[in-house]
Amino acid sequence: MSEFSLPDNDESISLSSEEALTLANELSEELHGGAISCADSRLIRKITAGLGDQRGRLRLTFTKSLASIGDAALPSLYRILHHHHNVTARRAAAKTLNLISNPDALPYLLKAFMEDEDPVVQGSSAGAMASIGPGAVDIFLGILVDPNCTPFQIGLANLGLSFIGAKAPQALRKAARSEHVEIRVAAISALGDQIQSLKDDEAKTILIEALDDPYPEVRSEAVTLFGRLYDSAEASPLLIRKLRDKEAQVRKNAAFSLMKLGVTSSIQPLKEAQNLEDMMDVSIIFQLAINQLEKLSELDIIS
């Protein structure tokens, strides 16, 4: 018979396998009725003690129950997230905090993100911070320039910023003009949502300015975003100009964006740029774009 213990500063509660099942069944009935009633501190401890249960269906019931209880469950969830020896419980705690989505949890989630070695805990903590929204923007931006963060953590921070997107327009516009290139790249990538959903003219101006950023990483991201957001008439002159960028990756991305947008008027500029190109891998991308756009042009003629 396995047991699942909750480290608690006040009282340690354990559930046997049978007790966990009975509790889950009782909670399921209450959830079916709408909400958990009479959630005192001892009941919260009992529910959180089940977060380490290896039965996924039971864990889901406990997670939903704690989310229904809400803020009153936060202290117990923080303790599990930071101190429980069972990684399954820590993962479940982070996922539950995602459902509750209380801004007060941000520092606790950041601590778990930075200190827990489990990638699922890190990912769930990042997801919970992103769900909380604008309040997490500065946290994610700080992660991007933290030398102690791993590439995996930086990737999660980028995803978090993209998820928040248009929910924090002012913060992202400010970040897009940061002195840190890593922050500018992430902010430019995240601007797409607000340009599309909010018709944000200032964000659009920032994106156009980013095409001439001194750092190629920023220019590359801006060129790629142009291919996703803009219609061909608006984007083509700006993208054609970037076919002569001094950075190879920017030139490649410009060709890909022109191809994605179906800018058949860029066939000749692509050929001219290819004639001047001295890097084989870039020339190959130019030729691919030319081939695809010529096929598209032929279809337009036939139709």
Could you please describe the fold and organization of this structure?
There is one protein chain. It contains 17 helices and two strands. It is mostly helical and 303 residues long. The chain has three domains: 1-132, no CATH class; 139-210, Leucine-rich Repeat Variant (Alpha Horseshoe), CATH 1.25.10; 232-303, Leucine-rich Repeat Variant (Alpha Horseshoe), CATH 1.25.10. It has a two-stranded antiparallel ribbon. Helix 5 packs parallel to helix 7, helix 10 runs antiparallel to helix 11 (181-198) and helix 16 packs antiparallel against helix 17 (280-302). The longest helix has 23 residues, at 280-302.
Summarize the helices and strands and which ones pair or pack:
Layout: E1 3-6, E2 13-16, H1 17-33, H2 41-49, H3 56-69, H4 74-83, H5 87-100, H6 106-115, H7 119-132, H8 137-144, H9 151-164, H10 169-175, H11 181-198, H12 201-210, H13 216-229, H14 232-241, H15 248-261, H16 267-276, H17 280-302
Antiparallel strand pairs: 1-2
Distance between the termini: 72 Å
Main-sheet strand order equals 1-2
Unreliable residue stretches: 1-11
Which percent range describes the beta-strand content? Answer: under 5%
What's the pLDDT, averaged over the residues? Answer: 90
**Gross morphology:** elongated
Strand elements, count: 2
Order of helices and strands: EEHHHHHHHHHHHHHHHHH
Put simply, the count of helices is 17
Radius of gyration: 25 Å
